Amino acid sequence: MPAHNLFTWSWKTAMPAPAVDFGNPLASTDLVLCAFERNAGTPSLLLRATAPAAGLCRGRPCWKAHGTSFTYHDPELRPDGLLLLSLRPALTGARVKAKAKGALLSLPRPPLVPSLTVRLQRSDAPACWEADFSRSQRNDTVMFKAKSG
User: Fold this and answer.
1) Is the overall model pTM greater than 0.85, yes or no?
2) What total of structural domains would you count in the chain?
3) Considering 42, 65, 78, 83, which has the largest number of Cβ atoms within 10 A of its Cβ?
4) Taking Cα atoms as reference points, which of 52, 55, 16 lies closest to residue 33?
5) Which range of residues forms the domain containing residue 26?
């Protein structure tokens, strides 16, 4: 599989993020992962992948609840390449992890413009989780790797 067909993102914060912030992906809250390049201030969409609420994956629910946390897993990568989404709320140290891959993932080959924004957004509320990447650790024809901060 070519390197541009794999996208991973991790986000964490020390700020409060209770479970209610993530909505109810088991029934009504779609979550959309997007990545944008910012070239001369104009955002350009690189990636959009949706974890639909109440979705079925191989005849079973894609979303599972684990206490106050949620996990989305779709081995079929439908509709747009999202494999895994993990939402771990907490009063301190909340985390989000995402992984997308495969032919359905519409991600251009690197190198990328180093000013990149990755965002996870709820479909039913203005809540979102976002990270800006202005410097890359690696940005060549094989891989783009960056750390927010």
Assistant:
1) yes
2) 1
3) 83
4) 52
5) 3-146
